[in-house]
């Protein structure tokens, strides 16, 4: 779908590009402008989709939905993400574009920590509750802050395993020098690359349970990991809960 016209955003992006190309621009401003560029990109995709669905609800009613799946596909699930690839490009910080009570199962993995807390995370919990049918299931997996903190200060073997499993494909490996660096990455991963959205908040089972109960879910319990839905590479060091409406 071609992007909807947005002269003011295009102009802003042009201006930002010019400032970023100027060698006099310092690191602090560059970093902030790179983050703004990412937000402009997300906003362009979102505006395009929301101009097709101005009341914020798409026509179709998928029974199974994955939020923030990135490249991870699940058979029979409709994928909503802020950026491609996805079935629908939508910034979930603006709500979930589905009809009330229409979804049987909603799944996300390593997504919730990438949206700001409390405003967007709590809105996500409320919106998930709204779109689920009675008895519908919300499955949420996040990096488990309790697992990490329980091991502080960690033995070097465990720290090495964490770095290998979580960060071996990132360019930050050389900067994880102590166990506290690992903790910092979980709480406030500030990945400064064009295709990475940072971590905004850390979660454990207690926090997820509290947030989904507050949003109105009847029950929240530990989820039995199912590799047909979740990514087996994510299981280690993550916590998954099942919230039922
Ligand atoms: C760390 S990736 C996880 C991808 C996949 N779930 C996995 O476990 O490999 C976070 C995903 O959340 C998506 N995301 C971040 N903020 C979002 C937002 N506001 N609305 C929709 N998707 C968002 C990103 O585009 C990305 O695909």
Structural class: alpha/beta
Point out poorly predicted stretches: none
**How many helix segments?**
8
The CATH class label of the largest domain is: Alpha Beta
Distance between the termini: 34 Å
Percent of residues in beta strands? 15-25%
Q: In which order are the strands of the major sheet placed?
A: 3-2-1-4-5-7-6
Enter the CATH topology name of the largest domain. Rossmann fold
Number of strands: 7
Report on the biggest sheet: 7 strands, mixed
Order of helices and strands: HHEEEEHEHHHHEHE
**Which architecture of the largest domain per CATH?**
3-Layer(aba) Sandwich
**What ligands does this structure carry?**
S-adenosylmethionine
DSSP helix fraction: 25-40%
Number of domains: 3
Average per-residue pLDDT, rounded, comes to 94
Q: What form results from the Cα inertia axes?
A: flat
Radius of gyration: 19 Å
CATH homologous superfamily placement of the largest domain: Vaccinia Virus protein VP39
Protein name: Methyltransferase type 11 domain-containing protein
InterPro entries: Methyltransf_11 (IPR013216), SAM-dependent_MTases_sf (IPR029063)
Organism: Streptomyces albus (strain ATCC 21838 / DSM 41398 / FERM P-419 / JCM 4703 / NBRC 107858)
Domain Methyltransferase type: 95-139
